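Side project, low priority. Logging it here so it doesn't get lost.
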Amino acid sequence: MGTAQSTTTATPRRQLRGSILRSPILGPVAALVLASTFFALATPRFLSGENFSLILQQVMVVGVLAIGQTLVIITTGIDLSNGMVMALSGVLLASFAADKGLNPWLAMLLGLVVAAGFGLLNGSLVTGIGLPAFIVTLGTMNIAYALTRIYTTSTISDLPPELTFLGDTFSVGGTQIATGTILMLALYLLTWFMMRYTASGRTVYAVGDNIEAARLAGINTSRVLRGVYTIAGLSYGVAAILQVARTGVGDPQAGQTSNLDSITAVVLGGTSLFGGRGSIVGTLIGVLIVGVFRNGLQLLGVESTYQVLITGILVIAAVSVDQLTHRRK
């Protein structure tokens, strides 16, 4: 009797241990812990509330861009336009509020509409014409870049406080926390809930896993993809608001490497480039990995060129693991 009971108890424990070991975020979590441990031992300035708050402030813009990028990559797509869409949205909302005298809240709304419109355009071209997402977003990236430069080539300053309050900080236990950081974490929580507990989230995974099987199962795959790209565009608009709030200006030079930074975070977070697999929690961990590495290397006095080099190595390693896992399956 005792043996049977112990066997019954052990089985759920083994199942729990097996599910933990198979979790796609296990690797990213281990990488984050190892990186944090290394920098904590390498420099005493790393382990402080002020520095952790700084890391979150540094990654909050890319972190929000990575939310939309995650949704797109789960559907086997990729979005190269997000950084330039963010830049265009940022200069427009800053100009509308600072130069045109428009109500700041309305200016932010218009910036969100522009970004969401680009997302809808991407999704419509991918589904309507059947063009690869890489080609579509490469084209819209250049369109957004050109429109930004046509509109202005100089930074827009003297912004009203409504556009910069997300860059303000408040004190928690003596540590200054940026308001925008809280918004970023709230968006991750909302996206996690939607992807895990709603039918819409499950259809996104289904389309990414096998679009033909999803279509045969009665899912309107075109509508799902258009919705994904539109929501992704909306997240780029939110990132534009955070970018403007953090820097205090509308900068046409912003976002030039943000597309690669967001893809880096998503891949490091364990989302598969083959689609159908990934998690928004993993993306947040990937964002933190990038932030920890760059912050730690800065504290050690490593030149920015080497920071980019190390980030590139991390991306290749993460994609290689994904490729080997996909082949094995």
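Brief comment: The chain has a mean pLDDT of 88.
Revisit when time allows.
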